[in-house]
Specification:
The structure is a single chain. The protein is 31% helix and 24% strand. By secondary structure, it is of the alpha/beta class. A seven-stranded mixed beta sheet has the order 3-2-1-4-7-13-14, sandwiched between helices. The longest helix has 17 residues. The relative contact order is 0.17.
Length: 239
């Protein structure tokens, strides 16, 4: 098995495991990304096999399409402002359960859904786990303000680059009609302070730093043909 195949298998295993946490009658936030997609598929299978009633609140158009294809009843936060559980992936998670999200350009809606949830399951493969966050932070910005936001990021010690589209010319456009700035800061010493600083820049909708949800978060990590559940007291290996 190649490393890529092993990575996909880890995502599949942990996604399926997370879907096992869904119970009859739940309203569930459905994250965006490859690992969350495995959970969506399995939830749909459980709806058919076990005849459980589940409502899914997607965090992106893509997740909504996948949920409907899986046979999950889809709603939005206006209909279900309080969610029992959210299952979502992450770009990186540290030992204190600070998270970077936004690789799929859906982190604004993901943050709204996380905030509405009683419990959050973060599902990742082992490559996404680190002692300290160091990946670039996606920041959703109003197009009009992108240049100004990039200057502010520079004053915070970061380097901001507009994310370019794949199979299209020009910037990525989010489901909200905005741009994404990928902001590199190196190792992030104080994620909470950086999140606050980014979110107060004029023109920023929200950053991909999630620092306020650790108390209701469980991190499930796939790898080596199985998965494990991390606690905040675990010291995870550096990546």
């Amino acid at each position: 098995m190649t490393s890529k195949q092993a990575n996909l298998e880890a995502k599949r295993i942990v996604g399926i495991a997370a879907a096992g946490e869904v119970e009859d009658g739940m309203a569930v936030g459905l994250g965006t990304g490859s690992t969350a997609n495995y959970a969506i598929i399995r939830i749909g299978e459980r709806i058919r096999e076990e005849e459980i009633a589940v409502v899914g609140v997607p965090t992106s158009y893509q997740s909504a399409i996948r949920a409907r294809a899986a046979g999950i009843r889809v709603a939005d936060l206006a209909d279900y402002p309080e969610l029992d559980l959210t299952i979502d992936g992450a770009d990186q998670v540290d030992a204190a359960f600070n998270v970077i999200k936004g690789g799929g350009a859906a982190h604004t809606r993901e943050k709204c859904v996380a905030d509405a949830s009683t419990r959050i399951l973060i599902v990742v493969d082992v490559t996404k786990v680190a002692d300290r966050l160091h990946m670039p932070v996606p920041v959703e910005v109003v197009p009009y303000a992108a240049t100004g936001v990039a200057r502010h990021v520079g004053r915070l010690g970061g380097d901001a680059v507009i994310r370019e589209g794949v199979k299209k010319d020009g910037p990525v456009i989010t489901d909200n009609g905005n741009f994404i700035l990928d902001c590199a800061f190196g190792t992030i010493e104080d994620p909470e302070n950086l999140e606050t600083s980014l979110n107060t820049i004029p023109g920023v909708l929200t950053s991909g730093l999630f620092t306020e949800y650790a108390e209701k978060m469980t991190v499930m990590v796939g790898g080596d043909g199985s998965y494990r559940i991390l606690t905040r007291s675990d010291r995870v290996p550096s990546r």
